[in-house]
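Structure first, sequence second, as always.
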């Protein structure tokens, strides 16, 4: 059912009002689940690998450094036993690992192999512990670089030996390992998302047939069935779906037949009543005033009853697929004028055609030819004007436009004609617009405005007649006040002839 905007020209407000608009679909949720699982698993494995490798590398590095430091300390102690040993030359001659530096305290003085690493660079706690006679090892940071210091007391010569090892190379190795593991985790996460997408698509593929079938049924193709295929898990669902569709189709067909049969059965007594009222009308002058008023009431109710039966018959033809178009090529402006005149109320002399609103013809309409069923178009205009009379205080304007409209006086090939009917009523609330063209819908204000008129079939028949021509109809707010109904008809309708669901074989959708 068209909303306030024409179909295909939505204002974009519906998505924000939809409570499920922000929810992820089932396929997206499965993909996200796989991605999160892959990320969690890869992150766990990367963490275990990194910290295990870090502990192993650091342990090996510390063990090698300790072996080297104690060996150098033994050499220094042996050398210091000789009174002729030059301490500065001794400390320079110590064989150390690449990146290590030595610090020696003896005779109350400190000696170092590097200016950057002296006694002040060694943590105070380490110095105090070693100088008290206890070997110690400590990790610390010097100028932003991780370092390890190993202190060995030399009580036999009243000295203490310290060796500082740089761990910058080990830190670089660990950084490279961390980057590699993070990249592997990212690749694993992407791979998990790809696998999740593939698995969800494969798992949901059987539901695609059910979705297509449901869409077709919603569009009126009640003979649609789902092929159960070879999937044993889907067979029960597909069979139940087909049974539901068959029962729905049977029920709708029975209701349509009932409506058609009742409408046909009512035609005979209505014809008799109409003839009787005509006879009484011909002798109206012979009746008493009260009888004349009763005759007027009877005539009005009989006309409404006849109109309702005609509407029900028309609806039953649409439901049965037997509605046909009888097309004539006409001038659009003249067609609208005649249709409006035919729908105008009869005057005192019984002649129709006097209208209180203008019929405007837009630029470029003259000269166009419209293929249309004149009888059905007159019903469209009659129903729209009657709707305005019953619920909106009457029509204020009718306008005929070509679509697309001329731009700066330049005419482009016209594709459709739009007929606009405006009223000056209070307008239609947004909540009611989606239901305006539903059968038997009369709106929330129907009980307050001429509730005795209409059956709720008028606008639904308008939609059916327009659809049969391949056109569309919608409602929107009028520029000043009231409601505007827009009927758009293509110059050459896509459907010519009967519209029957039996014209094509039943549709079958694969569910696997």
């Amino acid at each position: 059912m068209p909303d306030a905007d024409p179909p295909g020209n939505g204002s974009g407000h519906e998505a924000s009002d939809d409570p499920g608009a922000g929810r992820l679909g089932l396929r997206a949720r499965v993909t996200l689940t796989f991605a999160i699982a892959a990320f969690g698993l890869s992150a766990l494995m990367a963490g275990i690998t990194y910290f295990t490798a870090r502990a192993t590398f650091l342990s090996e590095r510390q063990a090698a450094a300790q072996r080297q430091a104690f060996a150098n300390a033994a050499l220094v102690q042996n050398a210091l036993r000789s009174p002729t040993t030059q301490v500065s030359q001794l400390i320079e001659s110590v064989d150390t690992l690449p990146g290590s530096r030595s610090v020696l305290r003896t005779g109350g003085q400190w000696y170092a192999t590097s200016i950057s690493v002296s006694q002040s660079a060694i943590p105070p706690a380490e110095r105090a512990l070693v100088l008290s006679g206890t070997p110690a090892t400590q990790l610390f940071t010097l100028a932003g670089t991780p370092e390890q210091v190993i202190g060995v007391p030399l009580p036999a010569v009243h000295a203490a030996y310290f060796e500082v090892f740089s761990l910058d190379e080990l830190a670089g190795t660990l950084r490279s390992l961390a980057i590699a593991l993070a990249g592997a985790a990212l690749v694993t996460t992407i791979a998990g998302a790809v696998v999740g997408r593939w698995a969800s698509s494969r798992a949901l593929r059987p539901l695609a047939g059910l979705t297509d079938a449901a869409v077709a049924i919603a569009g009126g193709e009640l003979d649609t069935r789902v092929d159960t295929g070879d999937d044993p898990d889907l067979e029960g669902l597909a069979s139940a779906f087909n049974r539901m569709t068959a029962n729905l189709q049977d029920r709708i067909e029975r209701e349509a037949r009932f409506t058609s049969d009742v409408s046909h059965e009512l035609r005979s007594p209505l014809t008799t009543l109409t003839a009787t009222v005509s006879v009484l009308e011909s002798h109206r002058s012979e009746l008493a005033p009260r009888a004349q008023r009763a005759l007027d009431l009877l005539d009005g109710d009989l006309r409404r009853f006849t109109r309702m039966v005609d509407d029900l018959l028309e609806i039953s033809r649409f439901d049965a697929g037997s509605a046909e178009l009888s097309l004539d090529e006409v001038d659009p402006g003249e067609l609208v004028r005649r249709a409006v005149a035919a729908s105008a109320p009869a005057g005192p002399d019984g002649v129709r055609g006097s209208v209180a609103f203008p019929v405007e013809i837009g630029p470029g309409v003259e000269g166009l030819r419209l293929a249309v069923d004149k009888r059905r178009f007159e019903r469209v205009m009659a129903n729209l004007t009657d709707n305005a009379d019953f619920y909106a205080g009457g029509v204020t304007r009718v306008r005929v436009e070509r679509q697309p409209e001329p731009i700066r006086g330049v005419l482009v090939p016209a594709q459709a004609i739009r007929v606009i009917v405006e009223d000056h009523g209070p307008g239609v609330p947004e909540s009611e617009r989606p239901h305006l063209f539903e059968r038997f819908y009369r709106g929330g204000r129907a009980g307050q405005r001429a509730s005795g008129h209409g059956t709720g079939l008028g606008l639904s028949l308008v939609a059916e007649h327009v659809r049969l021509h391949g056109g569309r109809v919608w409602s929107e707010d009028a520029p000043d006040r009231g409601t505007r109904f827009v009927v758009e008809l293509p110059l050459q309708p896509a459907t010519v002839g009967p519209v029957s669901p039996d014209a094509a074989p039943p549709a079958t959708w694969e569910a696997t």
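Margin note: The two ends are 32 Å apart (CA to CA).
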